[in-house]
Amino acid sequence: MISSFPPKEDIVSFFIDSSMLGLFLSVFLASSRLSTVVADFKKLAHSYPQFSSICRLDVTGKITIDFKDPRVLRVLTACLLKSDFDLDVLIPEDRLVPTLPLRLNYILWIEDLLESFDRTDNIKGIDIGTGACAIYPLLAAKKNNWHMIGTETDDESLKIANKNVKQNNLDSLISLRKNQSKFTLKYLFLEENLQCDFCMCNPPFYVSLQEVWESRSPARPPPKNGFTGSPQELVTEGGELQFCRQILEESQELKDNILIFTTMIGHKYNLREFLLDLKAEGIKCTTTEFCQGRVTRWGVAWSFHNSCDLSKLENHKKDKTTKKNSPITFVIPKVPDQSYTVESISNKLKYILDDLKIEYKIITKRKNVLCLNIIAYTNTWSNQRRKRRLQKQLDNELMKKPKFSSIINIDTPIIENKGIIEQSLERQKKDDVETIEDCYTNDSLRKKSEESNKCKKDGAAENNTDVDAIKWPNARPVDNSSNITSEINVIENTSKPNPLSQAIVKINQKEDLCFLSIEYVGGTGGKESVHQILQFIKNNWNKL
Ligand SMILES: C[S@@+](CC[C@H](N)C(=O)[O-])C[C@H]1O[C@@H](n2cnc3c(N)ncnc32)[C@H](O)[C@@H]1O
């Protein structure tokens, strides 16, 4: 068992070392110091029959548990809560199993924040979306004697949460409230003159259940832990970014009621967006990273009070990826007779993305800023030249007859020889490393245009990729007066492979210039794929 829960200067982050006889909770926190606590499986098994029932003895005699089994996770969390905090917590089968280290991380970070504001006594906090376990209120009350309000929209979760509070005799410190409003916080202050030190939130992270399954970058190893949680806990309209934005919006009205606003964020790209929102509003904030094995979450805190400048607090761990994946930006050139606004540029960009069969979703739309999350499943931007070259080679060879006649019947229409082209492409794929710079030079676009005319004359098929590309000059997408109509372009694709490239694209206007920036988020194609997409956009911008 955890011998003594470390005082607040400690830790937080669980790591599991199955080679040791036990479970190590090393909690590296947002906090300046580090400590390690050991949860000993053997002792847990001795003390809790329900824990011994989920243990396995491996061939070397070590006790192990199956972290992929939600039932096992439930028992482990319940036993740790009992052993380390003397909390009896009922964790329902159909609800999220809270991972203890992550929750402790968040609480310890808040302790640090409160200390920065010299707040130590009679602390009062709000947990937005407390869940069935009311894990944050229980930990905060038991560990620190904080007064907590937990809010919840889900009746069933609220019912069990109330049971959990009662059976731990924490009613005097914890009050749970049903949220029936469209707000996250504001409704709590309408009838009561509440003063709180902080609010916290672990929001539902996803826009849809589909996103739950697609969210993990394929480049990352699979999670070690089993998957738990019900749709209402995981999914919210607009996803976590919208949820956090709602808190931010309400915080501006509640600046005198709550000292420190905090939230957890589960997706890196949302963290960036949310920090931009705070920056745009001129609100000072700080962030932290909660690392727990292969899972990383982020904490964001902001305040309207001057007693502490949150932006000057040393962040525990800067978002490394923000530095690593700094966006590439280019100034969008002005094209004669075309409007030069974020809206018209967005329409043009969407046309290009449609053409490349790249999916996109708008994540931010403000007056002078548009931000898209883009996902490409296949490389549609750098094969064209290769395909054309091969097609041309094939054409030439066919003209010369003898060379290819042994392989193909020259009477066969070219279209029927596609297999040969594809095979040839496959063979070339490995060693044909194209530099994007020469992919779509003016010369190649000129050729494209010539081909376009040829195709049109020949009545070529509309769905041919090259033909699609060449129809641009005649099908200008930009209607200067039009609104941004299509918000989302999800390509019909029943079996989606792992994304090749995922990025955040941003168009913004500063004074009389518009900028397009692209930032790699993930995907098997790496950052190079994002560079290529940007180069494609650059090379083709003036041609539309
Ligand atoms: C990801 S779960 C977090 C549960 C718990 N706090 C934890 O960390 O394990 C999000 C919770 O927020 C609740 N929720 C969603 N929208 C809410 C809202 N507007 N107000 C209060 N709770 C909400 C959901 O029902 C769900 O229980």
From TrEMBL:
Single Gene Ontology MF annotation: methyltransferase activity
Residues that, per the record, bind S-adenosyl-L-methionine: 103, 129, 152, 202
EC number: 2.1.1.-
Keyword field contains DNA repair: no
Coiled coil: none
Keywords: Methyltransferase, S-adenosyl-L-methionine, Transferase
Entry's Gene Ontology BP terms: rRNA base methylation
Cellular component annotations (GO), alphabetically ordered: nucleus
Superkingdom of origin organism: Eukaryota
Pfam assignment, any one: Methyltransf_10
Family under the similarity heading: Belongs to the methyltransferase superfamily. METTL16/RlmF family.
PANTHER family associated with the record: RNA N6-ADENOSINE-METHYLTRANSFERASE METTL16, SAM-DEPENDENT METHYLTRANSFERASE
Entry protein name: U6 small nuclear RNA (adenine-(43)-N(6))-methyltransferase
